[in-house]
Structure formats: structure tokens, C-alpha cells
Amino acid sequence: MRTPHSTAAILSVGDELVLGQTLDTNSRWLSQQLTDAGIMPVIHLTVPDDLGAQQHAFTQLASTVDVIISSGGLGPTADDLTREALAQAMGVPLEPDPVSLSQIEAFFAARGRTMSDLNRVQAMFPRSATPIPNIHGTAPGIHACIRLSNRECDVFCIPGPPREMMPMFTSLVLPRLRPDPSRAIHTRVLHTSRIGE
């Protein structure tokens, strides 16, 4: 039996986040969901659309936490590098998944549109990774495991847009997490007035 997930890192990907052009609401929401599940978020990290920075983040975080939740960087454009960065951190190649490709094609067909060849990259996954279907968009999620010399870390990569991220996490990621059933996280907020911090 695999060990429970007790600690988590939240990795946010995107130049727009690093530059402060977009507010990162995903991390706050994900932290709340993980805490409610009994998994302690211990770090939030934001990285740009840079392959080296993302690969380094995956590798470093995997050495310290049980699970990484990454949002963003799963689109079809040249700056969407999450899948490649994860594959490098795992030391494996990217491989096509025909089922995911069919699902992406069906998403476009249902809207009367033809899929661009650019979208084919969204059906590429690190070897041994498991695709996570996305019924709200074209970017499937990814479930993978980074294996280090002395530990393993589960990684879930989910889309950045909240309307895709939230339902995917709730329906398809949360059930795959392994919180310790005997553990709960409680917080207490104390309100004070007329005293210094």
C-alpha cells in the first residue's frame, strides 16, 4: 500500500502570474480544498513559461512533499511547457495518447469546429503518466509520479482556467489523493482589537 499524502505543494505556471498581470486565485482555492481533505499545503510556487524553471520546480518540490498540484501550461502553444517539463523531471519521453486525441477532436467537433494541428500536442504525455479527461476544454490533465532515490511524489497537472481547473480537481483529482483518514487539519482565528500585532 502506498503511503498517504500528508504534505502538498501548489505550483502555478505562467508569465502572466509571475509578472503580476493576472491574480493567482487557483492557489488559494486549491489550498482550501487540500486543507479540507486533510493534506497540508506547505508551499506555493509560481514559475514562468520557461522549461528549465518548471523542470527545476518539479524536481525540487518532489524531494520535499508527497504530492504536487500544478495548474497552467497545458495549452497548445509554444509557451505551454508543463508536460515537457514534467517529462524531463521524470526522465522519460513524451508519448501520444490516442484516446486523449480522440477526446480533443470530439470537443471541437461538438462545437462545429475543426481541430488545429497545434492541439495535437495536448495529447502528448510523459511515459507512464495517466491522462485526466477534460470535459470543459481541450487540455487534458496529467497524473504522474516522480521517483527519486529515496521517495516518490505524485504529480497532478491541471489546466489554468478556473472553469476547467475546479471541476477537474473536484471530480477527478481529489478522489485520487490519499489523505491519512486519521488526520484532520484545524485552524483557529483569533480576532483582537486595540492591541499591537
Structural class: alpha/beta
Rg result: 18 Å
Mean of the pLDDT scores?
Answer: 95
Low-confidence stretches: none
**Spatial strand order of the main sheet:** 2-1-3-8-7-6
The shape is globular
Q: Quick one: how many beta strands?
A: 8
Characterise this structure:
With 197 residues, the protein is α/β, with parallel strands linked by helices. Helices cover 31% and strands 22% of the residues. The protein is built from six helices and eight strands, in the order βααβαβαβαββββα. The strands form two sheets. It has a six-stranded mixed β-sheet with strand order 2-1-3-8-7-6, sandwiched between helices. The protein has a two-stranded antiparallel ribbon with strand order 4-5. Helix 3 packs across helix 4 (82-90). The chain is globular, with a radius of gyration of 18 Å. It starts with 6 loop residues before the first strand and ends in a 24-residue tail after the last helix.
